Amino acid sequence: MGEFELISRYFSNSGARRQDAAIGVGDDGAVLQIRDGYDLVVTTDTMVAGTHFFPDDDPRALGHKLVTVNVSDLAAMGAEPAWLSLALTLPAVDEDWLAAFSAGLHETAEYYNCQLVGGDTTRGPMSLTMIAKGIVPRGKALTRSGAKVGDYVYVTGTLGDAALGLKLCQGLHEVSKKHQTHILQRFHYPSARVALGQALRNIASSAMDLSDGLYSDIQHIMKRSDVGASIDVSRLPLSQAVKDSCDQTTAMQLALSGGEDYELLFTVPEAKRGSLDVLLSPYGTPVSCIGRITGVAGKLELKHGEQPFSYQPTGFVHFV
């Protein structure tokens, strides 16, 4: 099977059919129509076999995850997901793998109302790269640089589930049967907090998604905003699966440095906390206040209640 037949068979009609994609797959480039008064948000993620996923992982789950991790970046900026481009490198054409991968990509793109509008395929070690584009009202994009001293720090959902799922797949940790489905779902099929991200545009002072672990990721907000942060680890939201499967030390390690949660980390000024409570009610998404922004730039303080919390940081680091 040649490149163009591969694209035609598996990727020509992936995702939603959007009216603002004037020209999609099939030409040298896509033509996209940006609404008046909106900004374009663009993000890129690459998943490499042996680094970001196991070569024998379910290809349907890989298609789902590739879309979700990109859409999660758009969600963190308050953007509406719109268009996707895919660069797919494969060692050989495996039609069963392609059918499952494209099915996962297609159904997830459609769920987030995204259309695949272009990309590239080539032969080589397996690598999956996606560029996601979204739109946000002009000047309303959430960034990492707006946190101010006194702001409250929040996270959505629960932390550490995906990292526990990885350990389960690696045979490094046991999880009871009643929790395995939840843990593996969180690892293989993460969700992006798109609706909540858009709702936070006028409330959050800064935001990002959690991909490398809370301990590492919050320092990006600290650096871009030139602030410090104080986090109470006793307030970190943990699922019942993590609580039942791990001792406190392991649970904290997973929540702080496990990564791949794809939850939102954001800050809110004190004057808007009441608005946040009203905002959250329609979404049903649990949100936890875990600390505050402080004035000592670059200093991350961890505590457990009122007591200092000693922690040896870990987490995923590229090129190390």
Instruction: Report the uncertain regions.
Output: none
At the third CATH level, what is the topology name of the largest domain?
Answer: Phosphoribosyl-aminoimidazole Synthetase, Chain A, domain 2
Let me know the average pLDDT.
Answer: 92
Instruction: Estimate the helix proportion, in percent.
Output: 25-40%
Total domains: 2
The CATH architecture category of the largest domain equals Alpha-Beta Complex
Span from first to last CA? 38 Å
Major beta sheet, strand line-up: 8-10-7-11-9-12-13
CATH superfamily of the largest domain: PurM-like C-terminal domain
Beta-strand percentage range:
25-35%
Net shape: globular
Number of strands: 13
The main β sheet shows up as: 7 strands, mixed
Report the total helices.
10
Structural class: alpha+beta
Class of the largest domain in CATH?
Alpha Beta
Radius of gyration based on Cα positions: 20 Å
Order of helices and strands: HEEEHEHEEEHHHEHEHHEHEEE
